[in-house]
Amino acid sequence: MSEVTAGLPSDFFWGVATSAYQIEGAFDEDGRTLSIWDTFARRPGAVAAGENGDVACDHYHRMPADVAMIARLGVDKYRFSVSWPRIQPGGRGPVNPKGLDFYSRLVDELLEKGVDPWLTLYHWDLPQELEDAGGWPHRDTAYRFAEFAGLVHDALGDRVPTWTTLNEPWCSAMLGYDTGRHAPGRKNFGEAIRAVHHLLLGHGLAGQELRSRGVSSLGITLNMGVHTPASDDPRDVDAARRADGLGTRIYLDPLVHGRYPEDVLVDVAGRGAELPVRSGDLEIISAPIDVLGVNYYTSHVVKATDDPAVAEVVPQGRPVTAMGWEIVPEGFTALLVRLQRDYGVPMVITENGAAFDDLEVDDGYVADADRVEYLRSHISAVAAAVRGGADVRGYLAWSLMDNFEWGYGYAKRFGIVRVDYATQERTLKQSAQWYRELVAASRV
Ligand code: IFM
After folding, report:
1. Of the residues 51, 168, 191, 326, which is catalytic?
2. Domain total for the chain?
3. Which of 27, 109, 146, 355 has the fewest CB atoms within 10 Å of its CB?
């Protein structure tokens, strides 16, 4: 065992992750209808350079070769998401057999190569018709999502062991409906808060569908970090509390403890918003999960501003990634130890990684020492958390390959495999080779 992984359990697993819209392309093939991201990306100024996911990494057509590449990395698991409008066009009614068939073949390819499929049902690509009917601020969307979950399980449940309902509902709600930086691009805090509740309700209802079909490894993935006050000034301390409340506790308290945090209810009421909770919702939302997916990229030091709703991030002068996100591995350890203490659910790192402005391929090689260092320090941080008592069972690197980074388009490269978008050629970066060696060494 290397210094990096010291303390990780012997059955700790390793993998890589992607999501449908970011890699698949084939946006209008075989019966797929539009998602909110297809629509949003066509809005002038919404995505850098006017890019979109129409082609992306063309994974829809290159899937067998991509799975072979995953297998060559020697990882245990591959986390992918399914495209709702590919499987159930328009978000209602019968399934699209051709859409389902793609995922069925993907799962078969993975299993044949000895890689466990890990399926995420929702990674942000809501069918446009459901947005037109009200989107996540509208309660019915939660019921539509549960129906979708059942349909996907009916087709793939015999072969997929692990099911994640939602990826990063904070992004769906806050970036999608409050700041408008993500699809569908609405800017209304009240709608964002309604979306939070309906996403959580959708998780709970989908969980019921999956459990009734026998799923024994079920979870949700949240993106989180640590918010540290910039000073002892009570206003800064309160800014950190608020950020943690809307970033973490508004999700995990109802999921694990069956209630929304009192202080968060007060905060949102102060901004004229309300969580539209109906009788019985919190019981549905708090049904036990088996795994909490943790996505970690950075942590923040925050200070108060004149607007109590807005905390200012105070840069700490640390190195940053190409996203401008400070590199804070010890925040990862602190987060995991805190999640263990406050929530006690077994965890898996479902995403962690970094965008850097990689050099071009040179003689078949991409030197990305900065990404190697990011991964090394963050995997070490996970191991430190495990030594500190956190129950973390596995680590999935974000991302398998460069892909469509939402509002940033293709300019930000998170992959451990480089994608040349002109030719769709894939090249293992130095980081992929390093990760493959780490995984192999951890098995010895
Ligand atoms: O690319 C995204 C992913 O879709 C969700 N988590 C964060 C990643 C990096 O921004």
Report:
1. 168
2. 1
3. 109
